[in-house]
Amino acid sequence: MSGPATPLVRVRGVDHVRGTGSAATRVLHGIELSLAPAALVVLAGRSGSGKSTLCHLVAGIMAPTAGEVLVAGRPAYPVADWGEVSLLPQRLALEPELTVAENVLLPAGVRGRRAGTDLLDRLGLTAIAGRPARDTSLGEQQRTALGRALVLGPAVAVLDEPTGHQDDEHVHLILDVLHAAVRTGTLALVATHDPRVIDTADVVVRMRSGRVVT
Q: How many CB atoms lie within 10 A of CB 209?
């Protein structure tokens, strides 16, 4: 897949195997992708199709068994800076004792950077901004983790099922935030089977049994 701009993410001949020996399972087979900046790219497919594994490789939290994943010409693994590549994982990994606002702003604080709180409002989190994350609903926690992934305006935001656990109103908020991030230059790589996200994507990469099929 390619866009009009120079590719920001390149996935070249990537295979990935989970486990070892007789328990080894190949979950990705010969993945080839070239993805441009400032685009909403959807990885679409059923559970078990390899979407989350590919997300983890692009996000740089693990290395492929074979082939290479490059972000801006450099190996994605190990991840160097959330200002360049951020991740919304399925397991949200929020700090439960911190407030919603503190969780969203945490990447900026760690890097000594100032960040505005407009994401809280745009994600419908302002009313609970001072509440500990542990005292919020799963949908609220997911939007908190999404805000955390976007707060630094990363070059690449890897987002695994960002609209899960959301009602229609909050899905629309999430889509508005994603498209706003894209307009400012972010490549949003979204794993989903939500047609509301797929229908608004710039590029749809369909996966089946660990392979890109379109």
A: 14
Instruction: Report whether 203 contacts 189 (CB < 8 A).
Output: no
Rounded to whole angstroms, the Cα distance separating 147 from 214 reads 30
Question: Residues 93, 87: contact at Cβ < 8 Å?
Answer: no
Quote the tokens at residue 157.
């935001």
Q: Which residues touch 100 (CB under 8 Å, ≥6 apart)? A: 120, 125, 128, 129, 130, 131, 132, 133, 136, 140, 144
Strand 66-71 to 74-75 pairing: antiparallel
Task: Please count the other Cβ atoms lying within 10 Å of the Cβ belonging to residue 131.
Answer: 15
Q: For residue range 144-195, what is the model confidence (pLDDT) as tens digits?
A: 999 999 999 999 999 999 998 899 999 999 999 999 999 999 999 999 999 9
Residues of the chain whose pLDDT is less than 50? 1-3
User: Cα–Cα distance between 156 and 173 in angstroms, integer?
Assistant: 20
Element (H, E) at 141: helix 138-150
- CA count, 13 A, side-chain hemisphere, 152: 23
Round to whole Å and give the CA distance between 89 and 101: 19
Peptide bond into 78 cis (omega under 30): yes
